[in-house]
Amino acid sequence: MRQEAWDALPEFTGADWLRAGLGHTCIECQELAYLKFGARIIDGQPICGECLKEQGEMKEAEHA
Ligand SMILES: [Zn+2]
Predict the structure, then answer these.
(1) Into how many domains does the chain fold?
(2) pTM of whole model > 0.70?
(3) Residue 35 sits in a domain of what CATH number?
(4) Residue 7: inside a domain, yes or no?
(5) Which of 4, 20, 28, 36 has the greatest number of CB atoms lying within 10 Å of its CB?
(6) Superkingdom of the source (predicted)?
(7) How far is the CA of 10 from the centre of ligand 1 (A)?
(8) Does residue 63 have a pLDDT over 60?
(9) Does any domain span residue 1?
């Protein structure tokens, strides 16, 4: 069985760039975001560490 949706190659998203260890534009500040520099993937979009801090979404409480 052939499904048309599978004909399209999966798009290489910003999240994929980050997972590959590469930088990608942060959706908030347009700076390059890297996982190794604290960036995270939120809803499939890269967000840099600085913006995460501003948004207060770093789960520092996990270590409490
Ligand atoms: Zn940012």
Answers:
(1) 1
(2) no
(3) 3.30.60.20
(4) no
(5) 28
(6) Bacteria
(7) 25
(8) no
(9) no
